[in-house]
Amino acid sequence: MVPGRSALSAPASVYFSLQANHCFVYCSFSKKLLNIIFFMLVKEILDAAVKPVFSFEFFPPKKDEEWETLFKTIAALSPLNPSYVSVTYGAGGSTRSRTHDLVTKIQRETGLTVVSHLTCICSDREETGSILQNYRDNGINNVLALRGDKPAGTATLAEAIKDFPHAIDLIRFIKTNYPDIGVGVAGFPEGHPETPNRLQEIDYLKEKIDAGADYIVTQLFFDNRDFFDFVERCTIAGITVPIIPGIMPITTRKGMIRMSELALGARVPAPLMKKVLSASDDAGVASVGIEWATMQVQELIDNHIKGVHFYTLNMADATLRIFNNLHQ
Prior knowledge:
By secondary structure, the protein is α/β, with parallel strands linked by helices. Helices cover 42% and strands 19% of the residues.
């Protein structure tokens, strides 16, 4: 029996009805309808989807008082029925303990399926195994395997590497020792900034899929042509797993600059930049960014993508406005 998946030990006949991540079970022994929450693998969610699914990314707050704000955001977004949510690590795993606490808390208190980011940087086999076992014991069956960013105060990336030089090494470790855990990986429609050879980059991605990764979530982008080209190049390379586009709306001018720093290689198309710079204030910038993101998401849906992953920055307003626009 896989930890975190539904099971009944009672000696009774049962009838199952599956809705979202809830299993409604009628037990003829007790004459009761039981509502059992279980947590699907993201692969299972995507395989079963008959229409595009939506998911949200959060990050663990650095200050204790910000946790309440985050859970208000989660509560505000929950009515949108996300198929899953993800939780990030800080650079070098700097928010590692907060990530683990948040992942467990979200899944336990909201019933949402949660994907935890897991990075290679500053991680060894023993520690990573302990993290994965703890997740499995708490019914958390999904991780996003990443190399991670160099932590502050480290001169070179090599200094931060322990047992996992690359994401593929982490994937192999997971699939060898915890084969029941689902694994996602990152994709870069505009190219990974540290891999200038775009052909080689796709080859590396194919190796991660062959090692056992189930799906790809992309870095944010603002031009859908970059995403469609990326998908086509993946298809040519023999990559057949779902590729989920990552969307983050611009809401302030400073935010636009910050996005370009965080998502190295992400470019802002000239028409979008012109509209942002023409806005009179941040409210105007937000309207421009949300309208642009809505246009992106609608075009992606029209082209039959499996889902869309929203980078929320722990705020609900922009995502709620995009969803409202889509349903008008």
